[in-house]
Amino acid sequence: MVLERNMQLHPRHFGRNLRENLVSKLMKDVEGTCSGRHGFVAAITGIENIGKGLIRDGTGFVTFPVKYQCVVFRPFKGEILEAVVTMVNKMGFFAEAGPVQIFVSNHLIPDDMEFQSGDIPNYTYFRWIG
User: Fold this and answer.
1) Which residue, among 83, 79, 71, 64, has the nearest Cα to 32 in the 3D structure?
2) What's the DSSP call for residue 119?
3) Could you say which of 13, 52, 60, 109 has the lowest number of CB atoms within 10 Å?
4) 90 or 45: whose pLDDT is higher?
5) Residue 46 resides in a domain
6) pLDDT confidence of residue 35
7) Is-contact 64 53, C-beta < 8 A?
8) Do residue 89 and residue 67 come from a single domain?
């Protein structure tokens, strides 16, 4: 996905490594964040464009418009995800699919289905009974 962000950079980061400092700040600020519109930003894969900077009056900071490519993860209702079960209790189970923690209540599981632990550690599956 291609996203845009205005990045503010302190004057001490100006100079020969300006681009590297800007990209480093972008990665630190954006990777691992979540927004309702785009989901989780897993990684920045490339920089498409860094626009001309605009000096902020009275501060010396410069705002750069940056257009970048990134990998996002946004699950949606009804999507089937492969997840790792992290905890099972009498109320249901918790699982993780990437950065998302999932809880499935026992009340959502049909009566003719039950939990079964597999031979592989941390592997749980459902088995139809009846």
Assistant:
1) 71
2) S
3) 52
4) 45
5) yes
6) 84
7) yes
8) no
**Proportion of the chain above pLDDT 70, given as a percent:** 82
**If DSSP codes are grouped into helix, strand and coil, which group holds residue 8?**
strand
Q: What is the mean pLDDT of the chain?
A: 84
Q: What is the separation of C-alpha 103 from the centre of its chain, rounded to a whole number of angstroms? A: 18
Sort strands 113-117 and 124-128 into parallel, antiparallel or unpaired: antiparallel
DSSP 8-state class, residue 58: T
Indicate left, alpha or beta for 12 from its phi (over 0: left) and psi (-120 to 50: alpha).
alpha
Lowest-pLDDT range of 25-29, 80-84, 124-128: 124-128
pTM: 0.70
The answer to whether residue 78 is domain-embedded is no
Do residue 67 and residue 97 come from a single domain? no
The answer to whether residues 62 and 102 belong to one domain is no
Is residue 91 domain-resident? yes
Give the Cβ contact number of residue 78 at 10 Å: 5
Distance of CA 112 to the CA centre of its chain: 35
Residues 9 and 39 in one domain: yes
Query: What residues make up the domain containing 34?
Result: 2-73
Amino acid at 20: E
Is 107 contained in some domain? yes
